């Protein structure tokens, strides 16, 4: 058996498929990164004891949504892959804590954009940007980045100390999403997450502008959610339709978001491959229903679908995730460049409770 190979190539600088994008936000990221690190010289550094990627759960993004009983019962929408040549692009970002100083924390943020045209994948990685965040500079750093990206938006309350890594990664992600929406033409743009707006990190107007920019260029936004709490008749929507044969979509109507949340996409259960793999899929609700269905069929005809998930979006996640070697390299860089003294504080949970102690990071998801 011969397996067809797909190539992945790095894309230099800001070489998006189209030109004329605004690079102000990553420039400000770089400036604030360097400025914040100047304040950390000659301090002590407690390295983060988990040297793998940390995924921060954002409490503001917890879905408080329910789907009502549908009458008549929802019927699946069968999908027929359309191989009509279509460029597919995806975005993802990640953040990680590198360590703690006597005044704050050192974090790293990175984003990736990847697109597939014909049989070739290309990607752009922005970052990593390393920041020293303290109680004193937290508000300045966040609001400066927010103002750079959305100068017309009213300043929001600054995130808490624990929320700042995720919120800064989210700002970078919104910039990358906007860049794709403005530079791609007649393409499919894949987001990681839902099209639910009205949260602290996704203001409604912000997401509306991204979707409008995408529509104006003939693009369709598809947002895949890997883990959802949205339920239908008491069951998770991704487990509520086990008998429907893939590839198909099941529309989930009559969703009642609690204010201030707003749904900017039509919600579907997407079963795109054989096996017990289903995902929540949000598609821009301003598009007519036939065009939404056609977009998923073009995705099936142009991208690899592994375990029901698009390969382009999977690669975006992989390429933005920090490896253990990268974490060690960044820790070594800041230690040498800023003359930090490495210390090791005792883990009080393990010190007091031995094998029954969960450790200082037991609330973090990895």
Model description:
Helix 1 packs antiparallel against helix 2 (138-149), helix 2 runs parallel beside helix 3 (164-183) and helix 3 (164-183) runs parallel beside helix 4. This protein has eight helices and 19 strands. It has helices spanning 24-38, 138-149, 164-183, 204-216, 289-302, 311-320, 324-337, 348-353; strands at residues 7-10, 44-47, 66-67, 77-78, 88-101, 104-117, 120-134, 188-192, 196-197, 220-225, 231-232, 235-236, 248-251, 262-263, 265-271, 279-284, 305-306, 309-310, 341-343. The protein has one domain. The protein is 28% helix and 27% strand. It has 366 residues and is of the alpha/beta class.
Labels describing this entry:
twelve-stranded mixed beta sheet; alpha/beta; three-stranded mixed beta sheet; 8 helices; disordered C terminus; disordered N terminus; globular; 366 residues
How many domains is the backbone divided into?
Answer: 1
Query: Residue-averaged pLDDT, rounded?
Result: 81
Q: Major β-sheet, in short? A: 12 strands, mixed
Tally of strands = 19
Helix content: 25-40%
Instruction: Tell me the fraction of residues in β-strands, as a range.
Output: 25-35%
Provide a brief overview of the structure.
With 366 residues, the chain is α/β, with parallel strands linked by helices. It contains eight helices and 19 strands. Mean pLDDT is 81; it is low at 1-6, 11-20, 49-62 and 361-366.
What's the arrangement of secondary structure elements?
Elements: E1 7-10, H1 24-38, E2 44-47, E3 66-67, E4 77-78, E5 88-101, E6 104-117, E7 120-134, H2 138-149, H3 164-183, E8 188-192, E9 196-197, H4 204-216, E10 220-225, E11 231-232, E12 235-236, E13 248-251, E14 262-263, E15 265-271, E16 279-284, H5 289-302, E17 305-306, E18 309-310, H6 311-320, H7 324-337, E19 341-343, H8 348-353
Parallel strand pairs: 1-7, 2-19, 3-11, 5-8, 8-10
Antiparallel strand pairs: 2-5, 4-13, 5-6, 6-7, 9-14, 10-16, 11-12, 13-15, 15-16, 17-18
